[in-house]
Structures are given as structure tokens and as C-alpha cells.
Write a structure and sequence with these properties.
There is one protein chain. The protein contains 16 helices and no strands. With 402 residues, it is mainly alpha-helical. 52% of the residues are buried.
Length: 402
């Protein structure tokens, strides 16, 4: 693909599904780490788009409600193989952890203990290496001058000072404003946002989004403890969440625990298990559906809950991608996008420190392991799944020694 190409790259649905399934099996560490895995697979290995186009999609999805990493993966699948490619991409990335969450709800709710924390520690060390590699590789392209380096540093400082909410939106918003101020008179040689979604598809997605938002509460009101009432709760949560799965936690808990759908202990046990799985955190919905379902209806409820939680964010990403492509051609939008892309690097850098670094690093040995994992990825191009296995093995061995 040429560096300036905005046309959809030609690929098959099966190809997209296989690539996203691989990511669904190996992308540990949460949504920001997922973006680093995507950059490695979709940009550098498969070359489905260039780093500027990828950063443009990331910037869009960071500004929308819903699960940002799943939205990015969904739009990349659409870019590669159309609407069916987008669906295949979502299924591949979501299926592994959704199945594990369902099985956990049905058979293994009591599986807890120190061993789980040891494995989580190893996963976080691997995630730290992956995110660090993404920051190193994206910085030269997205922060090529002192002004954009300053935007990235400022964005990181805002995120560290004010947290993911509202720090992330302040960082990206100020990055866009800074881009307009600094680069409004500069001519950019390329448009960083690929043309993904057509106008008709965007309008259909918007109508479906509004239709479910209005209809589910109406139909669910007739049977508030039934499957439609439950789906309405999850759909509203998915439509109102800025910042991903961690931000959905208080919304879902407030809607489900006090009203008696499930206990607080069960809710937190499922959420804790979700932290150690690859793929999107929103697959927590499969656990909620299976746990809250009537007898012998766990599979249907899990599937409905999963779709209800993800669907609003995917529909909004479809609408946003169409609008984003059109406004991105304007000079002021290009200047703003340059600032937002620099801020994305700062967001990645901030999350590398907190929560990933703070959570993963407990001493000098952890620092050495994280550096070694980074070297395996960056220097020797070791597959991420092997790096994950090495970090988890180290964590298990270290725990057994102590």
C-alpha cells in the first residue's frame, strides 16, 4: 500500500477473522496494550495501513463512547474487507475471552487465589513491553518536531494528573486545539484517515443505534427481569461509556447489583477474572448474561448481553468513521489531527507508566524482565505470545522461590 492511499485495502473475510482471532488469543493488558498489539500486527506485519492512518482511527475511537480497542479493530476489519470483514474482525477478537468468561460463569466461579495474581503479574510485564515498543515506534512518525513532542508530553502529564477520565479527553482535546494553533497554515501531504465507511452505511448504523436506544427500554419495561430488560441495561451502559471497560464498571454495578441481578462478590469475581484474559474487557458482558440468566438459558443470555454491550460502540464507530473521513480533508481538521495524533503518543506513554508500569514493576528484577521482553519484541522480533509466555513463566518461578 502506498503511504498516501485512502482506498480500502482488498482482503478476504477469512483473512481478517484469522488475524483478529490471533489477536483475541494473545492481546493481554487492556485496551491501550491492545492498540500496541494492533499496531504491530496490522501496520508493521500485515501492512494493511500506514502508521498515520492507524493513528487517525485510534484518535477517532478514543473520542467516541464504547470500547476503543474493539472499535479500532472493527474499523480496521471494515477497511480491509468491508462490513463483513468488520463483523469477522469483531468476532475473532471477542470470541476467545467471551467463551472463557462464559465458562467461568458456568463452571469455575470459585477459581481464585494467589496463583491468579501471579499470572496477572506476568501478563502485565508482557503488556508493558508491548506498549513500550508501540510508543518507541510511533513517536518518530507522529511527533517529528519539537512542537508535537511538547503536545505529547503535555498530554501525558494531563493524563497522569487527572486520571483516565477526564484526563484523556482533556489531553486529546487540547492536542487538537494545539494542532490548529501551530499547524493551521501548514500544508500536509497526506490525509491520515482512510476512507472506510460509506454515507449510506453510516446512516443505517445511526438509525439502528437510535432505534435500539429508544425501543429496548419500552419493550423491556413489560418484563424488567426478562432478557429484553437485561439487554436494555447493558445497551444503555455501552452507549454511555467513554473510556472503555474500566469506566463501565461503576455503571454496570450500579444497574445490576443494588437491583438484585447478582451479588457484589460475584460481580467483582467476574470482573477480576476478566483482567487476566486476552481481548476486550467488554466480554465481561458474557459473564453477566450467564450469571443473571434463568435456569438453562445461560448461553442465550450471555450472547444477548455480549451483543448489547458492544453494539452501541460499534454502531457509533461506523457513524464516526464516515463523518471523520469527510471532515479530515479540511486543512483545519488536518492540523487538528496532527495535534491529536501527537496526544495519542502521550496517552500511550502515560498509560505505560500508570497503571501498567506501577502495577507490573515490584522491584529491580521486574525492570530487568520488562527490558528483556522489550528487547525480544523490538530487537529479535519475537512473537508476542512467546513473550507473554516467558513473562508469565518468570512470574510463576519468582513466586515459587519466594
Amino acid at each position: 500500500m502506498s503511504h498516501n492511499s485512502n482506498a480500502r485495502s482488498e482482503g478476504s473475510t477469512g483473512e481478517v477473522f484469522r488475524a483478529s482471532l490471533r489477536l483475541g488469543l494473545s492481546s493481554f493488558g487492556g485496551p491501550i496494550a491492545h492498540l500496541a498489539y494492533f499496531e504491530r500486527v496490522y501496520v508493521r506485519e500485515r501492512r494493511w495501513m500506514n502508521v498515520d492512518e492507524y493513528a487517525g482511527i485510534v484518535a477517532l475511537c478514543q473520542l467516541l463512547p464504547g470500547p476503543a480497542s474493539s472499535q479500532v479493530n472493527f474499523l480496521i476489519g471494515w477497511h480491509r474487507a468491508g462490513s463483513l470483514g468488520a463483523i469477522a474482525s469483531w468476532i475473532g477478537f471477542t470470541l476467545p475471552s467471551a467463551l472463557l468468561m462464559y465458562l467461568f460463569a458456568c463452571y469455575a466461579l470459585e477459581v481464585r487465589g494467589p496463583e491468579v495474581q501471579v499470572v496477572l503479574h506476568g501478563l502485565m510485564l508482557a503488556a508493558m513491553a508491548v506498549v513500550a515498543q508501540a510508543v518507541v515506534r510511533m513517536t518518530p512518525s507522529l511527533c517529528p518536531d519539537r512542537e508535537r513532542i511538547a503536545i505529547a508530553v503535555t498530554a501525558a502529564a494531563l493524563l497522569l494528573a487527572y486520571g483516565r477520565m477526564p484526563g484523556q479527553f482533556a489531553a486529546l482535546g487540547l492536542g487538537g486545539i494545539a494542532g490548529i494553533v501551530l499547524y493551521r497554515k501548514r500544508e500536509f501531504a497526506q490525509i491520515a484517515v482512510p476512507e472506510i465507511v460509506g454515507r449510506n452505511a453510516a446512516w443505517i448504523a445511526f438509525v439502528i443505534f437510535c432505534g435500539f436506544l429508544l425501543a429496548l427500554p419500552v419493550f423491556g419495561a413489560s418484563a424488567p427481569r426478562g432478557i429484553l430488560g437485561f439487554a436494555s441495561i447493558l445497551y444503555r451502559s455501552g452507549a454511555a461509556v467513554f473510556g472503555g471497560g474500566h469506566v463501565a464498571l461503576p455503571l454496570l454495578r450500579e444497574a445490576l447489583v443494588p437491583t438484585g441481578w447478582l451479588s457484589d462478590d460475584t460481580f467483582l469475581a467476574g470482573y477480576g477474572f476478566a483482567q487476566g484474559l486476552p481481548g476486550p474487557l467488554f466480554t465481561f458482558g458474557a459473564f453477566l448474561g450467564a450469571t443473571c440468566a434463568p435456569h438453562q438459558a445461560s448461553l442465550e443470555w450471555a450472547a444477548v448481553a455480549l451483543v448489547a454491550l458492544f453494539l452501541p460502540g460499534l454502531l457509533l464507530a461506523t457513524v464516526g468513521a464516515s463523518l471523520w473521513t469527510r471532515v479530515a480533508h479540511a486543512p483545519i481538521a488536518q492540523a487538528s489531527l496532527a495535534g491529536i495524533n501527537a496526544a495519542v503518543v502521550g496517552v500511550l506513554g502515560a498509560v505505560l507508566y500508570n497503571p501498567i508500569g506501577i502495577t507490573a514493576i515490584h522491584g529491580g528484577t521486574d525492570v530487568a524482565v520488562a527490558i528483556a521482553a522489550f528487547a525480544l519484541l523490538a530487537r529479535w522480533r519475537t512473537p508476542p505470545i512467546i513473550v507473554v509466555a516467558v513473562c508469565v513463566l518468570f512470574s510463576l518461578v519468582a513466586a515459587s522461590i519466594h
